[in-house]
Amino acid sequence: MQDSFDVTTLIFLALAVFVIWRLRSVLGQKTGAERSPFRPVERNRTEPPAGRAEGDNVVRLPGADRAQAAAAVQTVTRDWRGIAEPGSAVARGLEQVVQVEPSFDPRTFLEGAKGAYEIIVTAFAQGDRKTLRPLLSREVYDGFDRVISERERRRETVETTFISIDKAEIVAIEVKNRAAQITVRFLSNLITATRDADGKVIDGNAETGVEVPDVWTFARTLGSRDPNWQLVATDAGG
Questions:
Q1: How far apart are the C-alpha atoms of 48 and 167, rounded to whole Å?
Q2: What is the pLDDT of residue 6?
């Protein structure tokens, strides 16, 4: 019985060694170059993972966004002719802006600034507080509101008609962290007149256009979802 037991044990040991050898030949040995364990992507997110746009099946590699941002900065920088002199304070300010928000385009900004300028001047003349409120900072709105209230108290009306905006140029840029302020000098040609309660013109001219210089400062938090700039300061003059 002892001999039989020893023979059986040896047979099982031989089989075990054979099985281990076969497994190693099929699965291979670790070499240090194996892939990391699979990590499933979270499926319960309500928004696309970082680096992936809605409906986009491609996940961008780390660093791709930075490379795209750098390319955008170079593109905008090459397109600053007519906006800012190379090496000027305005050019350096534009560089700061696009470092935070690569999609910023100064020409598009100036077109928007001209549109805002005309809307704000017209709304102010008409006493349209509803239009003014979202376009102005709290401080500027309060100042405009006081003037409108005084006109209403005296029963005065203002008539303003735009003939043209002859110039809009960026004259200063300030960026602190993500808060940006861009100052624009406007030169417009418009007809403006203030009438008293009896309809008599007491200021301006109801028939002749005049050149009006204005220096306005717009502010916005760069990179925010809200694309709108607010008027935060005004200055009449060249």
A1: 43
A2: 57
